[in-house]
Every structure is written in structure tokens, then in C-alpha cells.
Design brief:
The chain has 329 residues and is an alpha/beta fold. The protein has 2 domains: 5-171, Peroxisomal Thiolase, Chain A, domain 1, CATH 3.40.47.10; 177-324, Thiolase/Chalcone synthase (Peroxisomal Thiolase, Chain A, domain 1, 3-Layer(aba) Sandwich). Helix content is 33%, strand content 25%. The chain has 11 helices and 13 strands. It has helices at 22-26, 33-40, 53-68, 92-100, 116-130, 153-156, 205-209, 219-240, 258-267, 279-282, 289-297; strands at 5-14, 18-21, 44-47, 77-81, 106-110, 136-143, 161-171, 177-184, 192-194, 215-217, 250-253, 306-313, 317-324. A 5-stranded mixed sheet has the order 1-7-6-4-5, with helices on both faces. A 4-stranded mixed sheet has the order 8-13-12-11, sandwiched between helices. The chain has a two-stranded antiparallel ribbon with strand order 2-3. Helix 3 crosses helix 4 and helix 8 packs parallel to helix 9. The longest helix has 22 residues, at 219-240. The two termini are 28 Å apart.
Length: 329
Amino acid sequence: MSKVKAAITAVNAYVPDYVLSNAELEKMVDTTDEWIKTRTGVEERRILKEGASSDLGYEAVKGLCEKRGIDPGEIDMLICATATPDMIFPATANIIMDKVGAVNAFGYDVMAACSGFLYAMVTASKYIESGSHKKVVVVGADKMSSIVDYTDRSTCIIFGDGAGAVLLEPAEDGDSIIDSVLRSDGSGREHLYQKAGGSQYPATHETIDNKEHFIYQSGQAVFRFAVTRMADVAEEVMKRNNLTGQDIAWLVPHQANRRILEATANRIDLDLSKVMINIGKYGNTTNATIPLCLWEWESKLKKGDNLILTTFGGGFTWGSIYLRWAYNN
């Protein structure tokens, strides 16, 4: 009997209606459309005016169940990858499960900045492989606008809000998650973080006045690490599985910066036409970027396609997954 592996059997995503364009940002902060596009590739991003990350995640998971034709009560487990939980506790996963009606599931949050979705995917796949769970949902949901300082042009131009979800189920035909490489380096924490709001710096008048509840990013340091590390793990997982750029149908990278995406593709000798890029429309939605790509490209994916997923996030965290797509749309 073939070993049971975890396959993606459905994907769905959700973005808010409100579009924050570069033209509008020009009125809010000292920047220009050309400056933003040249340095990041972002042209617009979606913003959730009312609601929380769980509301984004709820929409993604509700649509996922409808597409797959399952009742939310059939979900065994739900992992939510988020950098912007509704609150410190309870877990945003629990809130999403309550809103969607996943009454028979257990769940929890994974916080690994932009790498959380891949970390959660690998974790979820182990539950499937063990045989203990049959239907596991992984949702990446972030309301990044809730922690963005719209007077800081180094960060406000990059981030957007959104959510994406995948359903993992058992598979024995090999069209599944094949391999993964996950890495982290805590010394990178000084380059990308939200200083206040945790146990080290609880909220005070001073932390609020100093704008320490917003994202801080040392752009050049993050860029250098991301360019190297995303490519490193993508190349590593490919070499371990005797893959070349010609074997890959699609590279699915975290949408951090267009220049990083191009450098990663070049490193693994992959034509840019085989790279999923939607940062122009959505910006960096943190944990939602990879499932948003899978959702947008779903109609182009074919059963058996080799996909390389790769990411980099604060912490530092980074990783890559090699999977074979499990279905034709």
C-alpha cells in the first residue's frame, strides 16, 4: 500500500472590496506611484475598512467548503496562520471555526510572520500523514492595515489585507505534498518586527505615542536576507528531489517584493512566465499571499504539475515546499 500523503483538494481566497491605489497613497505620504512600483512592484492593495482577520478568514473558509461541496462540520482541524490575530487569545482559528460552523474541529494559530502559511501547511500535512485526520484546513489571514503606520512610506506602500485557504486531504497517488525545507534565525528579529503589544513591551501611553504598535522594517537588511534565503530553500528542495527549472510548472513565491521574486526565479533557472506574481494587485498580504496565488492561478493548474512554494518572513523565518498538484479545475 502506498504511503498516505497530504494533497490540496481545494483552494479559495478573499480580498476586501476597497482598493487603496498608489495615487491615493501619494496624498497620504511623501511618495509617488513610480517610486512605489520601481521599488516594490505594488500598484494597489485591498483594505478591510471594518472587521478583523477572522472576518477575512471566515470568507475564505466558507467559500472553500462551498467549492469542495463539504459541510464545515466535516472539518477535523483548522490552522490559522496570521501575524494580525483578532486578539492575543483566544486563537483566531477558534473564532473562524465558530463563525463558519466547524463544530467538530480543533484548531490553533501559527505565528511565523510571512512564513506562517507554509509552516502551517507542513504541520497540517503531518496530521494527514499520521492517519489521525482526514480534512484539515489551513487558512492564512491578515489585516495588515491594522498595524501599518500610514505616515511611514517605507512600510505603508507594501502591505494589504486578505485571506486564502486550502483543504488538505489524504492521497495515495503521489500528487501531494512531497517535501519541505523550513528554517528560522531569531537574530533577524531586530530587522522586522512590531515592538509593542507583547509581554516585553505591554501597551502604555508611551508605546502608543511612540508608534511602537506598528510594523518596523529595516528594508535593506530584510531585502538582502530574503533574496538569498528564499532562493536557498527553493534550490535545496529541488536538488533533494532531482528537479531542475524545466521540471517546474510554477514557482509560487511569497509576494514580498517583485525584485525578490525575480531574483528567486533567476536563481533556480526558471523563466518569469512560470512565476505566480500578483503583488501588483494585492501588495504583501503576509500569510495570504501564497494561497491568493494558488486561487488566482487555479484554472491554469493541472493534475501532476510540479509546484515550488517558497517564502520569507520576519523572525527571520523562511521555507519551501515541493508539491504535485492534485486535481484539474
